[in-house]
Write a structure and sequence with these properties.
alpha/beta, Rossmann fold, Helicase, Ruva Protein, domain 3, 2 domains, five-stranded parallel sheet, two-stranded antiparallel ribbon, about 15% strand
Amino acid sequence: MEERIEDRIKGFKDTVLSIEDEIAKEMIGVKDIIHHVLIAVISGGNVLLEGVPGLGKTRLVKTLANVMDLDFKRIQFTPDLMPSDIIGTNILMQDDQGNRAFSFQEGPVFTNLLLADEINRATPKTQSALLEVMQEQAVTVAGKTRKLPKPYFVLATQNPLEQEGTYPLPEAQLDRFMFKLLIDFPSLDELDQIVNLTSKDKQEGAKKVIDGDQILMLKETASQVPIAKPVQEYALKIVLNTHPNKEMSNEWVDKYVRYGSSPRGAQAIIHGARVRALMEGRYNVSFDDIRDIAYPALRHRLFLNYQAVTEGLRPDDIIGQIIEQLDE
């Protein structure tokens, strides 16, 4: 039995490394982002990618779809986009005999991997059309619910909110994202590699590594990774500490946080930590796994007050303080 488990761990790790290597052929300087995107995808979660235009957010999602051999569709969010443009609508059709009937025309959400590009450019009404899609993986139109194919993921990109012409995502929708990942501007060396990569006429593109069924198998394997009670309680304490004026909250949280993470934050940490453990070649979740996953799982679920904003603090600063002061 132990040998079989070791083989599964090795197979899991090797598969993920192969995926990362293929994506790296087309992406420069975002290894940590790729790593956490894969953790979320294998966990079955949605990802919000934030960064200024031109950092390769859209390219990353397209490459991921290619490497995982997933049906891929893209929605460019704009202020005039309507909910029916996303989920689909009933259209009155007429056959050769003149009979008329309503026929449902599927929207672009009917796919395996949906890229919601610049999601904060659309109005809240259109943004909310993705709520059921992201949580239930289903679409309800005219009282009929239609399931989406499996596996299913929404990877959304957004520009920083300080840029003009954006609509902040509502808290309920942010909570549907398992991770929020921040893409920083590349360094001088990385920028040089990007220019060289894009200026070549011919380059070796990313190749398929796995398919949808294999992704579901990886998810099933990760769900069976054991987690010790003290490690799980450590993750739950981090989440509880994000709420101000509670028994477990520290001074930073009481001073700078309006309200903290929902229970989905705890679920995201546990699910992500299990996947990360396998990616590190272990069949048990460690405290380091919890600490690593806490940042992408909680940064969009932590809402700071005005004083924190004026002092230039970010959610990551608060999460770091919580982890620093919390004993294992």
